[in-house]
Amino acid sequence: MALQLGDIAPDFTAPTTEGDISFHDWLGDSWGVLFSHPKDYTPVCTTELGFTAKLKPEFDKRGVKAIGLSVDSVADHEGWSKDIQDTQGVAVNFPMIADADRKVADLYGMIHPNASDTLTVRSVFIIDPSKKIRLTLTYPASTGRNFNEILRVIDSLQLTDKHKVATPVNWQQGDDVIIVPAISDGEAKGMFPDGWDEQKPYLRVVKQPKA
Ligand code: BEZ
């Protein structure tokens, strides 16, 4: 069965552009973004990896490690990284897994045979510090992902974990948030002493708590 939210992200060892890794050890106490792309030396992937490298300061601020994957070799990843630097103006600053035997792709269900028998689709897994999968996302090969959205989801998840708030439609940093339904009004009084806007008993809107 496909991996689902709340499952523990499967552990694995694999060669990467930064040496062999043992995935859970490599994650340590960080959040992780594991993402696959169909193939090295392809145009959409080139832009995605460049943009992800540019986001490194944002990932660092949030305690997140990014790691890419395709079924190409470390040598291919290294050669292609030079093209990414040439065209995107940034060096790849996170490891890329060389999953030539598709071990990791199979563990994570990144190969969708009706799309391609051999290439990974564009999957994303957001993994929290307890190694639980908190988001899965699958895009077709021809559509580049929105990595700003991935950051936005991490912000939302971290707010929920820390402050027991959820984020409404199209939420962006600084916008109002929603007290999660599992928190009673009594508990909420202690957590949000300035009060909230009760639009319905189940829709309690509050200023975004400070980090
Ligand atoms: C790309 O990364 O550009 C790509 C890969 C496979 C199919 C279409 C586009």
Task: Give an overview of the whole structure.
The chain is an alpha+beta fold and 211 residues long. The protein has 2 domains: 13-146, 3-Layer(aba) Sandwich (Glutaredoxin), CATH 3.40.30.10; 163-206, Antioxidant, Horf6, Chain A, domain2 (Antioxidant, Horf6, Chain A, domain 2, 2-Layer Sandwich), CATH 3.30.1020.10. The chain is built from 7 helices and 11 strands. The strands form 3 sheets. It has a 5-stranded mixed β-sheet with strand order 5-4-3-6-7. It has a 4-stranded antiparallel β-sheet with strand order 8-9-11-10. Helix 4 (74-88) links the parallel strand 4 and strand 5 (96-98). Helix 2 crosses helix 4 (74-88). The longest helix is centred in the last third of the chain and has 17 residues, at 147-163. It starts with 12 loop residues before the first strand and ends in a 5-residue tail after the last strand. The model has no long low-confidence stretch (mean pLDDT 97). The chain binds benzoic acid. Benzoic acid binds at residues 38-39, 42-45, 141-142.
